[in-house]
């Protein structure tokens, strides 16, 4: 009789062990499933505010004009300015696409209601664009650099406003990229003009405002 009970116990023991293992495995799977549940990313949950929308709507035409200015360099500029213009065009073209995609994501138009104010910071007038288009050689190089410095300074101001007031992560990230890249290019352009890149930006503007003679001397000195 004793032997029978012992034998039954021995037969039941593996079954109990297997059942316990299955229960543990089931609990483990449930825990893994819980941990694997997707969580919303900050990008997905973030909402654009009015500063983000204005930044994108204003930066698109601003970049488009920089691309237009840079495309003129292909048949008019010297090697150094041509290289710079190509880099600006290559960088800002894709940024226009990113800004447009963000506005589409937000359900916003590429231009604000009432149209775009072309008097925004750093934008060239029609007369300035015509003057640049008519220039060639060193004259083009000098004028392009002077106008693009002003253009970049306007973009940096717009980007800094986005850094202060924007909330959408990708837009804020792009604003920082614009500040970093364009401040570096401003220093490069001032160097090409023969100016001191480390001097305050206001010095560059005041030098240009003193007349064409100072600007031409700087331009010839940079090439």
Summarize the structure.
The chain is mainly alpha-helical and 223 residues long.
What does this 3D model show about the protein?
By secondary structure, the protein is mainly α. The protein has one domain: Up-down Bundle (Ferritin), CATH 1.20.1260. Helices cover 76% and strands 0% of the residues. It has 9 helices and no strands. α5 packs antiparallel against α6 and α6 packs antiparallel against α7. The longest helix is centred in the first third of the chain and has 34 residues. It is globular, with a radius of gyration of 31 Å. The N and C termini lie far apart (110 Å). The C terminus is likely disordered. Pfam families: DUF305. This is DUF305 domain-containing protein. Keywords: Signal. It comes from Nocardiopsis mangrovi.
Write the SSE topology.
Layout: H1 2-35, H2 42-45, H3 50-71, H4 79-106, H5 126-134, H6 137-165, H7 169-192, H8 201-209, H9 212-221
CATH topology: Ferritin
Mean pLDDT: 78
Range of strand content:
under 5%
Distance between the termini: 110 Å
- Major sheet size, sense and barrel closure: none
Order of helices and strands: HHHHHHHHH
The percentage helix is over 70%
What is the CATH C level class, in words?
A: Mainly Alpha
Q: Provide the domain count.
A: 1
Helical stretch tally: 9
Q: Classify the secondary structure makeup into a structural class.
A: mainly alpha
InterPro entries: DUF305_CopM-like (IPR005183), Ferritin-like (IPR012347)
Protein name: DUF305 domain-containing protein
Pfam families: DUF305
Keywords: Signal
